[in-house]
Amino acid sequence: MRCRERHESVSLYRPEDDPRRPTPPSSGQRTKSDLPPEAPLDMPVQDLRRLPPGGVEEPIGYVGPLVQRRLFLIVGSFLFGLLAAQEMFTPLRSDGIDWIDAGFFLLFFGLFAWIAFGFLSAVAGLFVMLGRGPLESIRRSPLVLPRARTAVLMPIYNEEVGAVFRRLRSMVESVEKVGAADRFDFFVLSDSHESAYAREYLAFRRLTEGARSGVYYRRRQQNIARKPGNIADWVRRFGGAYDFMLVLDADSLMTGAAMARLATAMEARPSIALLQTVPQLINGHTMFARWHQFASALYGPVASAGLRWWSGTESTFWGHNALIRVRAFAESCGLPELPENSLLGGHIMSHDMVEAALLRRRGWAVHMVAMPEGSYEEFPPTMIDHSIRDRRWCQGNLQHLRLLGTAGFHWVNRLQLLMGASAYLTSPLWLLLIGAAIFETLRADFDGYVLISSGWLLGLTLLMLLGPKVAALLSLPLDRDLLRQLGGWRTVAKGTLLEILISVVMAPVTMLTQTFAIVDILRGRRSGWSPQRREVDGLDFLEITRFYRWHILLGLALTAAMVVGIDGMIWTLPVAVGLVASPATVWLTARSDVGDWLVRRGWLLSPADHRHFEAAPGEPPAELVLGPRFAIAQG
User: DSSP per residue over 557-576, as a string?
Assistant: First the structure.
């Protein structure tokens, strides 16, 4: 009860409640200054070894059987992993058991349990949707504007200026259309090089002309701690003037109605510090981006429903398209710098999941919300661009292993941090499993040795891998609008088959790329901070070949082993084909004309393609002015 009163006392803080807090001028009094008056807010660096003062152990009243849900996933994954590993272990007993066999058993058990967790989460999401219905069936509620003030923060780093400010203009105009211009201010927080300053500043000045919302621009001279340092600098300088902040990425896009609904929801729920939306992918032109847009649109609803079902009040933060209570963030999320003299030291790179855990440690709830429309982002256009970004995420997620012992973290937050690191560690483990399987086959001392001794294990493996896709297809009749936007059942079937084929071909490529990234990180090579390419139309084939030369060599080695007739190698054929074909696959999927050709013929069609073709080039889609509905997961 003490904690509930604490939340009530800090949740609806407004300027009129505290005369000491500077209040930005109203829309009618806007000046053309680059920044509003400063409103400093203390953001202390957190001690990860000790509980924060005034912290509470269990401040949140749970709604629903969260413990049972989480036990279902954990125990179910354990049992599926044990069942599969036991069956795989059967042929190993034929010539005796040694430590190599035991290692193979543990390796297979862990990896199978990993894919079983994803399968069970998707099954849970399917039943949630069957019981609740799609979000479209929720009665549209009238839009109620918040009373709180919200700062919309867009950190940028050497981005394409025209595209960034077109997105900003769309959001500013959308907020004005719903009548919330006096509730939202927009901040462009630049970490760009000095050479980009003139272009950014000119675009900013053009954006402010006629804008009724406050639009501000700040460029840091020193890019300390990357994006989290950028956000922390804003909090410490201006955070005291705002109740909430909406954190975006440079490729993010949100409607004014979505922003208003999020702010109104958080205003009404004083125990919540963060609302994370599930952004839809848009503006993809290459085959690679369209592949991910289709997969996200088709599989995303079931996956996110399952994630909300078990994460509850300990949901995660993805670093963008999320609304955050400013004072809760300031008191909870000052990130320390990890010691540089140790492996994976320095500034915390994958800050978002850590910040969610720090908020929960202070007694705040973190929720994921489902919105059928209103929250959008873009995806890297090519496999190489995705790999470069993934390399940074890999190092950041591996840092999380050092944070698992942080004092006061909820066990679900620790599990999420471990899962984030495991998402990358599974790649070298899969490669190790392939090597171990080949070794077990080669050292078998009798003819007719078969590693997979039963067909049902192969069937169970396929069920675990394809089950989430099947669950998404089973839920699709519940959402007729989505089915229509995907082109109907025939188009969905064609797109699903192509998506599975691309996934099979790309899986060994991703496995080896992430393995190399982990090796580089463990050797002490840090990820740089290079600008992301948002728009690409084709790649040079020589560049691709250089990037994937080791993939090709390993694929050729596996192919040669099959050609010379080494026993037990034939089952590595899909891996070999994917690796050898990686340059051609990456080159083909990087082309916009291939993506356009597929969409025109009903392959990989997604709702984003309808928005793209209905809008003028470079302009936001017409749907952006519509108001979304959303539901908060209540455990």
Answer: HHHHHHHTT-TT-GGGHHHH
The answer, yes or no, to whether residue 540 has pLDDT greater than 60, is yes
Q: Is 190 helix (H, G, I), strand (E, B) or coil?
A: strand
| 30 contacts 207 by C-beta, under 8 angstroms | no
Q: In whole angstroms, what is the distance from residue 328 CA to residue 366 CA? A: 11
Phi-psi region of 575 (alpha: psi -120 to 50; beta: other; left: phi over 0): alpha
Contact, 27 vs 213, CB < 8 A?
yes
For residue 441, the tally of other CB atoms under 10 A from its CB is 17
Tell me the pLDDT tens digit for each residue of 479-514.
888 999 999 999 999 999 999 999 999 999 999 999
Q: Is 424 in contact with 400 (CB distance < 8 Å)? A: no
Q: Is the pLDDT of residue 552 over 80?
A: yes
Rounded Cα distance, 551 and 548, in Å = 5
Taking the C-alpha atoms of residue 393 and residue 521, their distance in angstroms, rounded to an integer, is 11
Pairing verdict, β 365-370 and 272-277: parallel
Nearest partner of 324 among 250, 239, 400, 253, judged by Cα: 239
What is the rounded end-to-end Cα distance, in angstroms, of the chain?
19
> In 180-227, at which residue ranges do the beta strands (DSSP E only) sit?
184-190, 214-219
Give the CA distances from residue 161 to residues 200, 367, 375, 597, in Å, rounded to whole numbers and listed in that order: 6, 33, 21, 29
Cα(106)–Cα(84) distance, rounded to whole angstroms? 11
Whole-structure pTM value? 0.86
**287 and 598 Cβ atoms separated by less than 8 Å:** yes
Do the beta carbons of residue 578 and residue 510 sit within 8 Å? no
In the numeric block, which tokens belong to residue 231? 């956000």
Tell me the backbone φ, ψ of residue 275, rounded to 5 degrees.
-120, 115
The residues, ordered by sequence, that sit 6+ positions from 603 with a Cβ below 8 Å of its Cβ are: 491, 494, 495, 498
> Is residue 11 predicted with pLDDT exceeding 50?
no
Share of the chain above pLDDT 90, in %: 63
- Residues 47-64: what's their mean pLDDT? 67
Each residue of 508-531: pLDDT tens digit? 999 999 999 999 888 877 766 666
